[in-house]
From TrEMBL:
Residues 1-24 form the signal peptide. This is Lysophospholipase. The keyword Secreted does not apply. One of its GO terms (biological process) is glycerophospholipid catabolic process. It comes from Capronia epimyces CBS 606.96.
Length: 647
């Protein structure tokens, strides 16, 4: 039991001082100016983790309708999409699309954003497994990875992409790249003085002095608690997600204090983003009404992008500037006599929100191999939090308060509560990428979900998004049809990449044509990369093996497992664009579509247990991942209880 220990941590927090009365907008702007030359996500919060009241800027922040893209995104896209032309030209020219002059084609459409292929990448949830498997895919797509621009390699796809969405564990990956100046996966995993991804140090134990962090476990907890304490003292509602987000930041942000000053909105202030050097980041979370435990398929899906937070769904149907979250919006405006709030959008809090799956943990507790005593204890702690509605991420004041009173069931609530973006079953963050306003042509959907008995994906996430696209909440989004999971497993569609939605003539005339979905399911190449979602510590050799495995999954071992794959990736990128411009589909692409598209075949008989084994020589025996440190959930839950009770 860690409680006495936490009590010590809690009393330590009483000593710590917080919240000197910083209040001026200028302070915030000065901070931005000071570190602006660093060209990276900025530690620019005015008062560390504590949100701060400032005078509203002359043009007061407001909520806007989701009818169109934001002017900020529209302006940014012009820059980014131009920057994708050259990488796309290089990549497609290299991918050996026989009988097709990819260079000439891209040159021809480069002036015309509506003809040019528009690429999105989506990285699913699934805890650290999803972060690592997703990181492998990103590494496979990154031209900065060593030797990644030769025959058979997919380096350059990341540089060609417009959007990069992440959810839960996948959101940690996206956030970690964004908060660390768009560094490479290789640099984040490097075992050197600047190492960041030290997942051998459980999130419940805190950093080891081996990495960039300086604290021991005691100091770690006292930091977590005192940061959250500061926010509470300043009058903001706190929840377990605050502690969780602070803890995650120590693993994801390269800063000795766990990056308490890094704001999500600082992405838009960093030079690399402004120059359109990398894709547009989006994290996803679900709305969860108080008292709700199971999340329905038609819950509101919220996104946090570089500029805004909000939803395209016909409920709140609006977006608020992410930088001014915490401000008291009423009917979309901050009242004239009120101040604005900045510093609420702590990057760790946003990443924690997208991965706030405490109620899922409670629901899954019986399935874990932890001891009965501990199970009981955790069950109690988590249900207490649940009853107090503290197992959510609290976005009070609700930015959409009275904004859409006719359509938003939460419009009259001053509280907005969010949970893990995968809790509605849509564990791949496709929602932002199927919005007609964004005109995405192809989504590389990296799925690390734990659907089957042995934690492999079976496309349940795609099924969820497909089913949602048929209901009223879809609001003009469309999605390719997806077969049942038995079919997926029986046809082996979860053992290799599969395309869905190849034939756009299947979509009715005049309706939205959804993106082509390139489904990339986690499967074993060089290691059993099916580590449990509730594994809290992964040593570096297993971490590296999962990342390498993910690289092989996405590239089919750089085209060595299927030599047509690199070409077929090129065809997937081009497919919608070729149709729009009335260009003949090269024969080699027709072969690709015959090979990789789901052709409508169904086999819904119950498959036998899915237990794949690595198809290549193993990189590393199954690592020593353990879920022993799950006991420390007690600690974090207790920390939150302490915070709630003591403060
Ligand atoms: C951020 O990355 C860019 C591009 O690689 C580099 O020029 C710049 O020096 C980096 N900034 C920091 C603070 O590391
Ligand atoms: C978004 O655009 C508005 C209007 O041009 C501008 O005032 C604001 O600074 C932009 N926001 C960001 C984060 O770039
Ligand atoms: C993007 O490229 C087009 C065509 O080359 C050009 O007209 C436009 O000015 C560019 N936009 C930006 C923001 O660089
Ligand atoms: C390119 O594709 C053709 C088939 O279209 C194949 O014969 C050839 O070997 C491939 N070249 C490379 C370098 O992979
Ligand atoms: C990259 O390629 C070069 C030359 O073929 C080789 O010497 C080097 O070991 C390769 N590096 C990696 C990381 O594979
Ligand atoms: C982390 O920060 C340290 C110190 O600023 C730097 O040396 C190192 O390169 C950074 N690591 C990454 C992956 O950015
Ligand atoms: C969608 O929401 C409505 C009411 O909000 C509910 O009655 C319905 O059962 C939900 N449908 C699904 C598929 O969850
Ligand atoms: C938020 O604004 C509403 C409407 O003006 C007001 O009634 C309420 O007191 C404000 N709350 C805070 C915390 O400022
Ligand atoms: C602003 O004015 C409204 C209406 O008069 C009042 O209800 C509210 O409390 C005021 N808010 C602040 C922060 O003074
Ligand atoms: C877990 O198991 C316990 C004891 O068998 C049972 O009382 C409890 O309802 C179960 N919880 C869930 C969420 O299934
Ligand atoms: C919210 O309150 C307003 C005014 O009382 C009412 O007209 C509206 O129907 C309510 N909306 C919801 C979703 O309850
Ligand atoms: C697919 O995953 C879902 C969700 O975990 C599960 O209920 C179902 O049994 C699985 N089906 C197959 C065939 O693996």
């Amino acid at each position: 039991m860690k409680l006495p220990y936490l009590a010590a941590a809690a009393s330590a927090l009483a000593v710590s001082t917080t919240a000197s009365a910083i209040s001026a907008e200028e302070v915030y702007l000065d901070a931005v100016k000071d570190v602006g030359h660093l060209r990276r996500a900025l530690p620019n919060a005015p008062d560390d983790y504590t949100p701060t009241h400032v005078q509203c800027p002359a043009s007061r922040p407001s909520v806007r309708s989701a009818a169109s893209l934001s002017p900020n995104e529209t302006a940014w896209l012009e820059i980014r999409r131009n920057n994708t032309v050259e990488p796309m030209r290089t990549l497609l020219s290299r991918l050996n699309i026989t009988g097709f002059d990819a260079g000439a084609y891209i040159d021809r459409v480069s002036n015309n954003a509506s003809a040019l292929p528009n690429i999105g990448i989506a990285v699913s949830g699934g805890g650290w497994r999803a972060l690592m498997n997703g990181a492998g895919a990103i590494k496979a797509f990154d031209s900065r990875t060593d030797n990644n621009t030769g025959t058979g390699h997919l380096g350059g796809l990341l540089q060609s992409a417009t959007y990069l969405s992440g959810l839960s564990g996948g959101g940690w990956l996206v956030g970690s790249l964004m908060m660390n100046n768009w560094t490479t996966v290789g640099a984040l995993q490097a075992d050197d003085a600047g190492s960041v991804w030290e997942f051998g140090n459980s999130v419940f134990k805190g950093p080891d002095t081996g990495g960039v962090q300086l604290f021991d476990t005691a100091e770690y907890y006292s930091h977590l608690v005192s940061d959250v304490d500061g926010k509470d003292d300043a009058g903001f509602d706190i929840s377990l997600t605050d502690v969780w987000g602070r803890a995650l930041s120590f693993q994801l942000i390269n800063a000795t204090d766990g990056g308490s000053s890094y704001l999500w909105s600082s992405i838009a202030q960093s030079k690399g983003f402004q120059n359109g050097d990398y894709p547009f980041p989006i994290l996803v979370a679900d709305g969860r009404a108080p008292d709700e435990v199971l999340i329905s398929g038609n819950t509101t899906v919220f996104e946090f992008n570089a500029f805004e937070m909000g939803t395209w769904d016909p409920t709140s149907y609006g977006f608020a500037p992410v930088r001014y979250l915490g401000s008291n919006f009423t009917a979309g405006e901050v009242p004239d006599n009120d101040t604005c709030v900045v510093g609420f959008d702590n990057a760790g809090f946003i990443m924690g929100t997208s991965s706030s799956l405490f109620n899922q943990f409670l629901l899954n507790l019986n399935g874990t191999d932890i001891s009965d005593t501990l199970k009981k204890l955790l069950g109690h702690l988590l249900s207490d939090l649940g009853e107090a509605n503290d197992d959510i991420a609290d976005y009070t004041p609700n930015p959409f308060f009275q904004y859409s009173p006719e359509t938003d069931p939460g419009a009259n609530s001053t509280r907005l509560t969010l949970v893990d973006g995968g809790e509605d079953g849509q564990n791949i963050p496709l929602h932002p990428l199927i919005q007609p306003n964004r005109h995405v042509d192809v989504i590389f959907a990296v799925d690390s979900s734990a659907d089957t008995n042995y934690s492999w994906p079976n496309a349940t996430a795609l099924v969820a998004t497909y089913e949602r696209s048929l209901s009223d909440i879809a609001n003009n989004t469309a999605f390719p049809s997806i077969p049942d999971q038995n079919t997926i497993v029986n046809l082996g569609l979860n053992t290799r990449p599969t395309f869905f939605g190849c034939n756009s003539s299947n979509f009715t005339e005049g309706s939205t044509i959804p993106p082509l979905v390139v489904y990339i399911p986690n499967s074993p190449y060089v290691t059993l990369s099916n580590e449990s979602t509730f594994t809290f510590s992964t040593n570096n050799s297993y971490r590296d093996a999962i990342i390498l495995n993910g690289l092989h999954v996405a590239s089919m071992a750089n085209g060595t497992v299927d030599e047509t794959w690199p070409t077929c990736v090129g065809c997937a990128i081009l497919s919608r664009s070729l149709e729009r411009t009335g260009t003949d589909i090269p024969d080699v692409c027709t072969s690709c579509f015959n090979r990789f598209c789901w052709n409508g075949t169904l086999d819904s008989s119950t498959p036998k247990t899915y237990e794949p084994t690595p198809i290549l020589e193993t990189a590393d025996a199954k690592g020593h991942a353990s879920s022993k440190s799950v006991g420390l959930w007690t600690a974090i839950a207790a920390a939150a209880v302490t915070v709630t009770l003591v403060l």
